[in-house]
Amino acid sequence: MACSYGNREIYGIIYDAESGAPVVGARIRIGAIDGQCVPGTPDQRTGPRGMYATVIAAPGHGDGRYTFQVTAEGYQSCTGDEVPFPHPHGDKVHRSFALRRE
Fold it and tell me: How many CB atoms lie within 10 A of CB 63?
């Protein structure tokens, strides 16, 4: 299967659930669970604004469910959230995560 990446994307912000401040250095792992192409950046860390983004393969190769695992030092991890493609919001899907302190 040849993976062709275009303008489909999942993006968001990882932030502290209590203060609303961005969580810098949080690790986001995004997995493809229906046999589709993996995201363009399946394992990444947030920058100074707590942001992440990854491209999703074009229709036919990127359709399916994507699952998330978000971890950060001093916070409870967040696992199991899913985003399906195609998505009712279109080709660019926002998915942010509020992490709670341990």
Answer: 18
